[in-house]
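Comment on both lines for my students:
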Amino acid sequence: MIRILFLVFPLLLSAFEPQPVAQSPVIGFAKIPFTDPYLNMERELLVWYPVDPGAGKMPSRNPWDLFQISDAPPANPAGKSVIVISHGYTSSPHQLSWLIRDLVANEFVVIGIQHLDRTGSVVQLNHWQRARDISAMIDQLGLSRFASAVNMDNIGIAGFSLGGTAAIWVSGGRSTQLDSVIPGPESVANPEEFSLMEGGLASLDRKMMAKNWRDSRVKAAFVISPAWGWIFDPKSLHKISVPTYIIAPAEDGLLITGANAGFFAHHIPHSIFQIISGKANHYVFIAPVDADKRRQIDPSGHLSILFEDDSSVDRCWIQSRVSSEAARFFKSAFSK
């Protein structure tokens, strides 16, 4: 028996392929300029992609990034699946660098854009423009030099906060409940934080807000702490057929999880819904940065709320588990 075990063990070990472990991750990064035909302005499609481990690297100029970048060509360009990311309100796609890093490490190509959440200093509520941004990103990727490296039949979306809402839009949800756009205490933890929304009501295009923004090219949605549940039509959510994974903290602090993430999960058929227990808050999904980078990002300290975690919360651990779930979910969705 002992002799047989010694014979079997080398066979098992020989089937194991170690993966390179680098001191710091290196991710391919490119900016692709294009003219937005709807807004008639120049914008940039951001693309993150796998590169060979030995690719030349440079520090990212964006202080939110948790990786080094490279302009090397894609590694093994052979039809990689695509994940569109959509960031939170008035923030940046780079704030999701923890998610970008792990998706690229799992051989996905990730694309993003800086959504235009403000008109100058004026609050605007035409968030349907994000759904149009997502479709425009997919269009531009198909026209870019990366088109031959990706599988345009395997496209998913991962969105955080208002980005999660955008993921619901392009999956088929419709925001037709517009009589009471300003949320009440049943939907948000602190209604005063949404009081400035009243200034955007006059310019709100309700017809465009209620439009069907479904993009059939999106085949799966990973939705993180979505907002605006109060404006969605449950009947439209019942018709969503793409695989959907919704995750949110129990004690969000900004949004009432049950009325937003829970509302979407209740009405979207066969959706996965996970609540993160404990005292993690809404901003636990923002990339962690050290004190020096914080001063670089926000010298005034106005964004300090983004970095405030309860002493019981390990932000990096939560982000590592959430990004792992996202990668597992998309691989499963695209394998069917």
